[in-house]
Amino acid sequence: MASLQHQKQTQARSRRAANNNYSKQTKTLKTKLDKFASAYGAEVYCIVRRNGRIIEFASRTEEGKPWSPPDQNTLVSGFVLAGYD
């Protein structure tokens, strides 16, 4: 019994560490994307999906409003036109 309980505790600790690391990395990614958008005047849109949850980041316009990314069809056609087919 003790080894089963120890194994469950180890798994829980490992999961918690992975979630904490994911959270930290997500914050770092958002910060770097924001710096990139500011430094180069780029419109940045990023989607991260993990365990069925989605996190989105969109850069801000010059007026400080969140940039609205194009719809999915426009994105897909843009990739095809850019030679990613």
Give a topology summary:
Blueprint: H1 2-40, E1 45-50, E2 53-58, H2 72-81
Antiparallel strand pairs: 1-2
Describe this structure in words.
The protein has a single domain, classed as SRF-like, CATH 3.40.1810. It is an alpha+beta fold and 85 residues long. It has two helices and two strands. This is MADS-box domain-containing protein. It comes from Alternaria alternata (Alternaria rot fungus).
Compact summary:
The chain is an alpha+beta fold and 85 residues long.
Give keywords.
2 strands; MADS-box domain-containing protein; two-stranded antiparallel sheet; 85 residues; SRF-like; 58% helix; alpha+beta; elongated
What is the N-to-C succession of helices and strands? HEEH
Shape: elongated
Number of helices: 2
Find the structural class using helix and strand composition.
alpha+beta
User: What is the CATH class name?
Assistant: Alpha Beta
CATH topology annotation: SRF-like
The gyration radius over C-alpha positions equals 19 Å
Q: Count the domains.
A: 1
- Measure the end-to-end span: 55 Å
Number of strands: 2
On the 0 to 100 scale, the average pLDDT is: 81
Q: Assign a percent range to the helix content.
A: 55-70%
Largest sheet: 2 strands, antiparallel
How do the strands of the widest beta sheet line up side by side?
A: 1-2
- Beta-strand content estimate: 5-15%
How does CATH name the architecture?
Answer: 3-Layer(aba) Sandwich
Low-confidence stretches: 81-85
